[in-house]
Write a structure and sequence with these properties.
With about 90 residues, this protein is an all-alpha fold. It has helices spanning about 35-50, 55-85. The protein has two domains: about 1-55, no CATH class; about 55-85. The chain has two helices and no strands. It is elongated.
Length: about 90
């Protein structure tokens, strides 16, 4: 049975009464949930073996902030380059 049709075969809205998409909606991901979980478990194993350094939440958050700043800088550079080509 099609998830967008009711028992009579009539099309229904894919959102529930609160306006939230149903759980069958797919999200574009770089990998599957299974692959992501397997990768995380491999990383945990390497951390426990001492082959990867442990990171605190502060360390992770700090790295994400640095990465975000770099992305913003690249966006600004690309915007300036694109804007200069219009002249």
């Amino acid at each position: 049975m099609d998830k967008n049709k009711d028992i009579k075969g009539e099309l229904v809205n894919a959102k529930d009464s609160k306006g939230v998409d149903d759980m069958d909606t797919t999200i574009d991901r770089y990998c599957s949930v299974t692959e992501s979980l397997e990768e995380s478990l491999k990383e945990m194993k390497l951390i426990r073996q001492g082959k990867l350094p442990k990171k605190s939440w502060r360390d992770l958050f700090s790295e994400l902030q640095v990465e975000d700043r770099r992305n913003q800088e690249w966006f600004i550079i690309l915007f300036i380059l694109q804007d200069s080509r219009k002249i």
